[in-house]
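Quick one, C-alpha cells below. Sequence please?
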C-alpha cells in the first residue's frame, strides 16, 4: 500500500516536472536574453524611446523647475532661436517614436523638471506643470482620494506630451484626454504667454491639444480629475468574431463598467481568432487611505511577456498564462489609481540590439471584425514579430483640430519587437502602409505619435484637416520656430519650380 503510494507520488512528480519543464526552460531562456544593456544617450544627441532617431542637436536644455525662472529661461531661448534661425523642439518623456520631440540641429527643451502641482479640493481641478509624469501625479491625487480621468494605460508619460498627442487609454466610453483639459498656459514663439480654454483663445486651444508641440510650449495645464474608486476585475474569453457582441453585453449594458480593454491572441495557430474582454466594474468609493502598492509578480510578468518574443511557443505560453492566472495577478479588487500606476518598464525592451515599436489604428466600431480579418490577411505575409494586440474604445472627440475619432472607434494597439536598425525599420514601412490603407478603407484612422511610415497622402486621407492645420501653424508661428521630424515630413512641400512652370 505504502509502496503503491510512493510510486504514485513519484510518477505524479515526474509528470508535473515534465509538464513544467518546457515552460520553465522557456522562461529561463527569455530571462537570459533580457540583457539590460541599453547604451547611454550620446552627449549632444537627442533620441526617443524607439532608439531609431539619434540626432545631433545644437543645444539640449532642461527647463528650470521654478515658474518665473523657467519663463525667463524659455523666453531667452526662444529669442536666441529666432536670431540664430534654429528650430526648437519640446520633449516630455520622449515616448513618441517618430522624432516628434526632435528637430535636427536645433534646440530641444526638456520639460521634465517643470512638475509643480496643486489640487483644488472643491472643484477637483488639478493644476500641473507640463513636465510632470502620471507617475508623479497619481500618488499625489491618491492622497486626496482623486484620480486621473483619462490617460494612457501606463504611468510613464508627461502631461505636456499626453495632451500634445491627445492620448487615450482603458477609461471606456470616453473621448480622448482633450475632453478633460479645462485650460492651459502656452508660451508662444514670440515669447507671449496666453491662457487657452474653450472660452479664451478657443481656436488655439483646439490646435495645441493633439498639436505635437508645433504651436508653443505648454507651461501648466488644468485637468479635471475624478474620484478614486475600487473596482472588481472580470475577464470574458470570446471568439474575436463575437467581441463586439460580448462588449455590448458586458460593457455597454453594464452601468458599473469603468475601465475596459480587449486582447487578441497572436500565436500563429488560429492567429487573432480568440479574444479576451477584460473589464473593471465599480464596487465602492476608495478611501483616502487606499494604499498604492508595488505591482505584484513584476519579475514573473516580465519573464512571461519576454518569452513571447522568443518564438510561437512563447506566445502561446503567454496567452495560456494570461487565461489561467490573470485573475490572480490583478487580484479580486483593485483601485483605479493602482490600475493606472503601472510602469511600462515591466514589458519594454532593455536589450541594446532590439526595440519595441507601437502601431495604432482607430476603426469605426461596426467595422471591428472586418479589420481583424484584414490583420489576419496582412500581418502573416510580412516578416514581423507581433507581440501584442490590445483593443480599447474611444468616443468622438469634440475638442481637437487634428482629430482621430469622429465617431466611436475601437483602437487596435499593436506592439512589434524588431532589431534596432535602420534596415529593420525600413522593412516595417510596407507593412505599416498596408495596415494604414486597410484602416482607411474601413473609414478608420491611425495614431500619429509612432513611426512616420504613412505616406503624406495617407496622412491627408486619415486627417482631412491636415493642410488647414499646417496653415494655422504658419499663422501662429510664421518663422516656424517650433519644429520636429513629424512636421518636417508632413508639412506641405513647396512645388519644385520646374513642375510649377510646367503646370502653368
Ligand atoms: C510603451 C508605450 C505605451 C503607450 N501607451 C499609450 C496609450 O495607452 N495611449 C496612448 O494614447 N498613447 C500611448 N503611447 C503613446 C504616448 O502616449 C505618446 O507618445 C505620448 O506623447 C507620451 O507622452 P510623452 O511625455 O512621452 O511625450 P513626448 O514623446 O515627450 O512628446 C510627444 C509630443 O508632445 C510634444 N510635447 C511634449 N511636451 C510638451 C509641452 N510641454 N508643450 C508642447 N508640446 C509638448 C512633443 O514636442 C511631441 O511632439 C504609448 C507609448 C509607449 C512607448
Amino acid at each position: 500500500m505504502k509502496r503503491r503510494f510512493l510510486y504514485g507520488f513519484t510518477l505524479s512528480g515526474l509528470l508535473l516536472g515534465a509538464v513544467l519543464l518546457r515552460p520553465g526552460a522557456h522562461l529561463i531562456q527569455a530571462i537570459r536574453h533580457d540583457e539590460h544593456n541599453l547604451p547611454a544617450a550620446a552627449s549632444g544627441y537627442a533620441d526617443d524611446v524607439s532608439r531609431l532617431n539619434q540626432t545631433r542637436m545644437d543645444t539640449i536644455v532642461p527647463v528650470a523647475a521654478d515658474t518665473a525662472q523657467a519663463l525667463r529661461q524659455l523666453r531667452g531661448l526662444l529669442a536666441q532661436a529666432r536670431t540664430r534661425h534654429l528650430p526648437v523642439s519640446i520633449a516630455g518623456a520622449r515616448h513618441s517614436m517618430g522624432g516628434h520631440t526632435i528637430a535636427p540641429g536645433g534646440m530641444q527643451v526638456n520639460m521634465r523638471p517643470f512638475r509643480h502641482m496643486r489640487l483644488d479640493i472643491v472643484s477637483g481641478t488639478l493644476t500641473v506643470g507640463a513636465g510632470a509624469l502620471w507617475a508623479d501625479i497619481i500618488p499625489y491625487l491618491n492622497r486626496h482620494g482623486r484620480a486621473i480621468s483619462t490617460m494612457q494605460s501606463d504611468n510613464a508619460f508627461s502631461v505636456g506630451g499626453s495632451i500634445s498627442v491627445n492620448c487615450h487609454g482603458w477609461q471606456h466610453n470616453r473621448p480622448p484626454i482633450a475632453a478633460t483639459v479645462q485650460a492651459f498656459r502656452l508660451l508662444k514663439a514670440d515669447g507671449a504667454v496666453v491662457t487657452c480654454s474653450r472660452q479664451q483663445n478657443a481656436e488655439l486651444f483646439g490646435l495645441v491639444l493633439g498639436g505635437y508641440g508645433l504651436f508653443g510650449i505648454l507651461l501648466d495645464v488644468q485637468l479635471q480629475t475624478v474620484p478614486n474608486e475600487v473596482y472588481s476585475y472580470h475577464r470574458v474569453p470570446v471568439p474575436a468574431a463575437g467581441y463586439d457582441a460580448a462588449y455590448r453585453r458586458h460593457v455597454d449594458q453594464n452601468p458599473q463598467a469603468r475601465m475596459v480593454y480587449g486582447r487578441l491572441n497572436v500565436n500563429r495557430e488560429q492567429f487573432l481568432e480568440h479574444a479576451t474582454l477584460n473589464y473593471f466594474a465599480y464596487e465602492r468609493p476608495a478611501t483616502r487611505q487606499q494604499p498604492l502598492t508595488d505591482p505584484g509578480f513584476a519579475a514573473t510578468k516580465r519573464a512571461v511577456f519576454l518569452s513571447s518574443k522568443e518564438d510561437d511557443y512563447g506566445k502561446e505560453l503567454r496567452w495560456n498564462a494570461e487565461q489561467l492566472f490573470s485573475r490572480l495577478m490583478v487580484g479580486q479588487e483593485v483601485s483605479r489609481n493602482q490600475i493606472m500606476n503601472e510602469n511600462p518598464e515591466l514589458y519594454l525592451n532593455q536589450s541594446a540590439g532590439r526595440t519595441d515599436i507601437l502601431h495604432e489604428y482607430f476603426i469605426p466600431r461596426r467595422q471591428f471584425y472586418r479589420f481583424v480579418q484584414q490583420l489576419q490577411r496582412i500581418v502573416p505575409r510580412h516578416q514581423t514579430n507581433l507581440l501584442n494586440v490590445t483593443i480599447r474604445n474611444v468616443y468622438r472627440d469634440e475638442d481637437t483640430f487634428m482629430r482621430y475619432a469622429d465617431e466611436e472607434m475601437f483602437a487596435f494597439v499593436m506592439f512589434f519587437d524588431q532589431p534596432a536598425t535602420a534596415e529593420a525599420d525600413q522593412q516595417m514601412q510596407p507593412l505599416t502602409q498596408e495596415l494604414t490603407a486597410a484602416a482607411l478603407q474601413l473609414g478608420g484612422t491611425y495614431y500619429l505619435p509612432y513611426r512616420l511610415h504613412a505616406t503624406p497622402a495617407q496622412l491627408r486621407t486619415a486627417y482631412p484637416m491636415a493642410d488647414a492645420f499646417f496653415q494655422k501653424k504658419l499663422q501662429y508661428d510664421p518663422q516656424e520656430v517650433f519644429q520636429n521630424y513629424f512636421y518636417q515630413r508632413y508639412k506641405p512641400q513647396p512645388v519644385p519650380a520646374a513642375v510649377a512652370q510646367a503646370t502653368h
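The first helix runs from residue 2 to 33. The pocket of flavin-adenine dinucleotide is lined by residues 49, 89-96, 100-101, 111, 130, 152-154, 157-158, 160-162, 164-165, 167-169, 212-213, 217-218, 344, 348, 358, 449, 484 (CB under 6 Å).
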